[in-house]
Design a protein that fits this description.
Strand content: 35-45%
Number of strands: 50
Distance between the termini: 46 Å
Number of helices: 17
Strand order of the largest sheet: 1-8-9-10-20-19-18-11-12-13-17-16-15-14
Radius of gyration: 33 Å
Length: 871
């Protein structure tokens, strides 16, 4: 099966795309050929996509076992498959010392070929001087558990199909003094065809050209056939994403790399044969010292930097006018960069940024304004940011025509010109965010992971850098569902590919780095402007349809906002009142369309995802609310409960009608803490604590099942712990620890000093831990009240303790009001991170992107909602 991709002229650019870097990583994992003898090239079909030459297999195996990079390589499914098959054939041919040595020390060739659109298998080749098929058959019958043997003729050569008693099947033949074998019979037949018809690597012009030119002292040499890229892509790349990788076809044909496995990296130093349509560029320059690196934001997932060379690119872009190119040439600086900022969803379009150096800003603005006017638009600025005017170039495709990259493209483009650069982006918000990061000096040239990955490279026609910790959606968006490669790539700390094009050859240096650098850099991820200031604590909601986390917030002018996890405003609406308590998501109509319900002091609101009022809402409350509502969902039936200042709790159906059987519940006292609902033995229950110190358990009909009076009111933070088949309410206040069991019995125990803040969490079905802060420290105890750990505090004002779960791991969040920071500990009270905050009550910490990291969401003093990575 072969899939041919049609390449448009506009795609043929002299660039180094992400695809090249990904393909190198794919091939080092999947497509292998081990060879020593030159005559084995005759037996290698010209459909081979890679060759690896290993001078000392035993040395390579030792490197694999003792280096971190080798250990990571062994984790891949393809490498495991290769090892198992090589070991099997080593046993099969172990009767002959020469063959056995070949399969154990590397004197073999192993090629990889597709067996379907999504699978592959290996073809093993080794010298077999003086050995015949019958010699192998005799050994098989006497030394191995063979079930059946079928000797047949293929193109007048004998081939043998062997079935083992354990279910394994393979086919082998000996032809022209080489043995050929595979677990897939037609691969063995392909080798016979390659020898008899000449469709082999010995007759590949570009391969022979490369072999003669390539010279490397590395123990491992990798050769890649980029002409076969369209054949190998379907193994791992989603079909709908194939067009993004077209650039691979237009750079080189065969390429060779010297490969080294260091402790923390796999390094490549290579040479490629340029495709016929390509021309050599000018003498390589020091692109890494170029000033464009001062303008690349540090939250880039993928960066492709190259020198502007419009004269050469003109031949690859016949659709763009010469006049257009000449206009660009009048104001361009040396270099440009294609960037994909850390994408928070697989649709990468609005995160693509193009930056080019500007030698003459006046000419640049004049030319770009002229482009704007060509479609009849006014060439005046549409916005400003960092004192720079923002313009809108509706036909952004002109940028793709002049510079283009099939991976990073622009549509309708917003742009700014200033500080010797021009920045183009399809999203005005992303453009502003990029400007802000550049203005603060948060640029990629200061990124330790970049410097560690690129190393001592000093020159290059182009540089690709990928930060895997930020490129997860890129990998997942490109690769087939179920592929293990994205997970493997995510363990890298950096990927780089540096190239020079000169004298008809394509020189490449690449690194795949492992190690501690995989930690994503801390700092600002995005900032979203609100209409005014905010003091509201942003709330995290999980979209019931997509699984993505979203953010609900409000400003002081009573505008409410729903934001995506990337900071995009999904809707805004002025409700005229301040929200009290939590915001809940529901599917009111049970049709997959989501709404949001919450209350103010006087109304209950329900909004849809466009910010419109849903159903008959807003609902006016009979009495002012004293706390936020609590939503309960039993299947597809919703109901909610609102405590009010008249000492009653009101119950409502989702429609806003009073809840049947709840009339309302009076006499419970004023409740200012949100009710806690939970399931217990298939029943819905509600836990309520009033300002007079009474804790009550209610059922959904309004009956008080039990009540415990005279509890301390200084700390109302009762934690509900559900263990195996039971539950308890736990709190500490003053010098008392209060445990209340599911039957309402209370157990009061003394604590050391006076507890100011409290948090508890289960650690198994039958165990739990609790934490409290006093004037001096935070202390941890288990369910038997046995002391576990303590940590001393520099401050005596801890506003709250909270246990949060991030990707299955629990952390204790300590909000230090005096120091104005949030401290993060594990459950053993070992410090994990800390983060300064201006408004403790308006800060939310969460794993916003499900990347096992702590993200802080909070308003700032300039009317923005900010998103920071702190771990």
């Amino acid at each position: 099966m072969k899939i041919v991709l049609q390449i448009s002229p506009n795609m043929k650019k002299l660039i180094v795309p992400l695809s090249v870097t990904v393909i190198i990583s794919l091939l080092i994992l999947i497509y292998f050929l081990f060879l020593r003898s030159a005559n084995v090239y005759d037996a290698i079909p010209d459909s081979a996509v890679a060759v690896i030459e290993i001078s000392d297999w035993n040395k390579f195996s030792n490197q694999v076992g003792k280096t971190q990079s080798g250990t990571e390589l062994v984790k891949t499914d393809a490498f495991i498959k290769l090892q198992e098959q090589a070991a099997f054939f080593g046993r099969v041919f172990g009767f002959n010392p020469s063959l056995q040595a070949g399969f154990s020390n590397g004197k073999i060739a192993v090629s990889t070929h597709l067996t379907s659109a999504t699978d592959f298998d290996y073809l093993f080749i080794a010298p077999a001087k003086g050995i015949e098929n019958d010699d192998i058959l005799k050994a098989l019958n006497t030394k191995l558990d063979v079930s059946s043997v079928n000797k047949r003729s293929y193109k007048d050569h004998a081939v043998v199909d062997v079935a083992m008693k354990d279910g394994k099947r393979f086919t082998f033949t000996i032809i022209k003094k080489v043995i050929v074998c595979s677990f897939t019979s037609f691969l063995t037949e392909n080798s016979v065809t390659a020898i008899t018809n000449g469709y082999n690597l010995s007759h590949d012009k570009d391969f022979n050209k490369l072999i003669k030119k390539f010279n490397s002292s590395s123990d491992v040499k990798l050769f890649i056939n980029f002409k076969k890229a369209d054949i190998i892509f379907p193994v791992v790349i989603k079909p709908q994403k194939m067009s993004l990788l077209n650039d691979v076809h237009t750079t080189q044909t065969w390429a060779g790399y010297g490969v080294t496995l260091d402790d923390d990296r796999i390094s490549f130093n290579g040479l490629g044969v340029l495709a016929e349509s390509m021309k050599a560029s000018a003498t390589p320059k020091n692109i890494l010292a170029n000033t464009i690196w001062n303008s690349l934001p540090d939250n880039a997932a993928y960066v492709n930097v190259g020198f502007n060379d419009l004269k050469e690119e003109a031949k690859a872009n016949p659709g763009a006018s010469k006049l257009l190119k000449d206009d660009f040439k009048n104001w361009l600086g040396d270099a440009h960069a294609f960037i994909t900022l850390e994408p928070l969803k697989e649709d990468l379009t609005e995160y693509n940024v193009f930056i080019t150096q500007v030698a003459d800003e006046a000419k640049a603005l004049e030319h770009l304004k002229h482009l704007i006017s060509l479609d009849g638009s006014a060439s005046s600025a549409v916005d400003t940011c960092m004192h720079l005017p923002i313009f809108h170039l509706k036909d952004g495709s002109v940028i793709n025509q002049i510079f283009g990259s099939s991976f990073t493209t622009l549509d309708a483009s917003f742009f700014v010109v200033g500080n010797h650069i021009a920045i183009f982006c399809s999203s005005p918000d992303i453009l502003k965010f990029t400007l802000e990061k550049i203005s603060r000096g948060e640029t990629l040239n200061k990124d330790a992971s970049l410097r560690r990955t690129i190393g001592n490279v000093t020159t290059g026609t182009g540089v690709v850098y990928i930060n895997p910790s930020k490129a997860g959606p890129v990998f997942r968006g490109l690769m087939n569902e179920g592929s293990t490669l994205p997970a493997w790539l995510s363990r890298l700390s950096g990927i780089s590919l540096t190239t020079d094009v000169n004298s008809g050859w394509y020189n490449t240096k690449a690194s795949f780095c492992f190690g501690s650098g995989t930690k994503a850099s801390e700092g600002l991820l995005w900032k979203t402007k609100l209409q005014t200031l905010s003091t509201y604590c942003p709330q995290i909601l999980v979209n019931g349809n997509t699984g993505d986390k979203e953010i609900f917030t409000q400003d002081t002018a009573n505008n409410v906002y729903l934001l995506s996890k990337s900071g995009e405003v999904l809707f805004t609406k002025n409700i005229g009142e301040s929200i009290i308590g939590a915001v809940y998501q529901l599917d009111y109509y049970n049709n997959g369309k989501l709404q949001y319900i919450f209350n103010s002091a006087t109304h209950v609101f329900m909004l849809d995802r466009s910010g419109n009022d849903a159903a008959s809402y807003p609902l006016r409350l009979s009495y002012p609310a004293s706390a936020g509502l609590t939503l309960v969902n039993s299947g597809s039936k919703y109901r909610y409960y609102v405590p009010c200042t008249n000492g009653a709790v009101y119950g409502y159906e989702a429609t806003g009608r009073p809840l049947s059987g709840w009339s309302p519940l009076k006499g419970v006292g004023v409740i200012t803490k949100q009710l806690q609902s939970f399931k217990y033995k298939k029943s819905e229950l509600i836990l309520a604590f009033n300002n007079a110190g009474k804790l009550m358990l209610l059922d959904t009909k309004g009956a008080i099942k039990w009540g415990v009076d005279n509890l301390p009111v200084t700390n109302q933070n009762f934690n509900l712990l559900q263990t195996a088949g039971d539950f308890m309410a736990l709190n500490a206040a003053g010098n008392q620890l209060i445990e209340i069991s599911s039957d309402g019995n209370d157990n009061i125990k003394p604590v050391i000093d006076s507890a100011f803040s409290f948090a508890a969490t289960t650690t198994s079905d039958s165990t739990f831990q609790y934490f409290y802060s006093n004037q001096h420290d935070i202390r941890a105890y288990n369910e038997k009240n046995a002391f576990q750990n303590a940590v001393s505090l520099k401050s005596s004002l801890i506003s709250s303790l909270e246990v949060v779960t991030i990707s299955g791991t629990k952390y204790l969040l300590v909000k230090d009001e005096s120091a104005k920071k949030v401290m993060v500990y594990n459950l053993q009270l070992k410090p994990v991170a800390d983060y300064p905050v201006a408004n403790m009550s308006a800060t939310t910490l969460t794993d916003l992107f499900d990347h096992n990291e702590l993200i802080a969401i909070q308003p700032d003093a300039n009317g923005n909602i900010t998103c920071y990575r702190i771990k």
